[in-house]
Amino acid sequence: MRKALTFDDIGLTPVYNDVESRSIPSLKTKLTKNLEIDIPIVASNMDSVIGIELAHILESYKTVPIYHRFSKNNERDTFLLQFPNAFFSFGVKKAQVDDLYLFCSEHKVRGICLDIAQGHDVRMIKLIEQFKKDFSNIDVIAGSICTPQGYIDLVNAGADAVRVGIGNGAACSTRVVTGFGVSQLQSLLDIRSYSLKYKIPVISDGGIRNSGDIVKALAAGANCVMIGKLFATCAESAASKKWEHGVRYANYRGQASFEYQKSGYTPEGVEMWTEVTGSIVDLLNNLLGGVRSGLTYGGSLNISEFQRKVIELDLMFEVNSSYLNESYPRN
Description:
Layout: E1 10-12, E2 29-32, E3 35-37, E4 41-43, H1 52-60, E5 66-67, H2 73-82, E6 87-90, H3 94-106, E7 111-115, H4 122-134, E8 139-145, H5 148-157, E9 161-164, H6 174-178, H7 184-198, E10 202-205, H8 211-219, E11 224-227, H9 229-232, E12 241-244, E13 247-253, E14 271-275, H10 280-297, H11 303-312, E15 316-318, H12 321-327
Parallel strand pairs: 4-11, 5-6, 6-7, 7-8, 8-9, 9-10, 10-11
Antiparallel strand pairs: 1-15, 2-3, 12-13, 13-14
Helix pairs in contact: 5-7, 8-10
């Protein structure tokens, strides 16, 4: 039986730094093999996260909005009109595939996100293979998976980026319900050598609580991270909002939660009301500032240099709970 590490189980060793300012490091990265973005962050393609207002702000930071798959055609059309470079999410069931083909046939689409809970699936692989034959100019993000073989199979099928992460989201209960899922950091570490070989970007999906987690995800080989709850609790998210006793709350829900499940299926996600934290602009600036600081501790001008140094200088080490306790501010 092997160990599986989480973000809280590792630390990173600082190295000699010749970067003169924390504002200097570039955060440019690949979202797909064909598409570069300016920051290593995308918003989760959930209907309680991504909407028009949030997407406008994301585009101002030169990252790409990925629209959720629980939408009506007119909503999707409106979104595409405002965001021509957006990606659109679809499932793999027949009706969803028919919808995918109709949408891509009638519109000029930059990219799609094939979105199922366990993406290492024969339907996913067959769909990617056929879709890339029919629409070779449209980028495909596929997932989610959490194993090297899952990554390899989706890449060989033709995926232009692979989402990694099963059971680690704040509103996800997959591991509790099914017993399955690999720790997020461990998934990234397991896949890293293969992503270096195939050069197809990895999107680390879920489990991000702060900028330090983003730095650790990048250190473990992710090209960018996908964030759900942190964005859902911002004022500009698509989550339903309500006021109670002078406090504003946002409704965040997993897309495998009770509301989305057909009769006879056990939910693998939950719904929660959580306090609105403030503006997405403040959140993004805080996260990106922390990531740039992290790159300087790693003596790096960009993400690629940082990832190379993490491997070559063996900067990652395993920690215990005492390290975690020591790391947080305390009285």
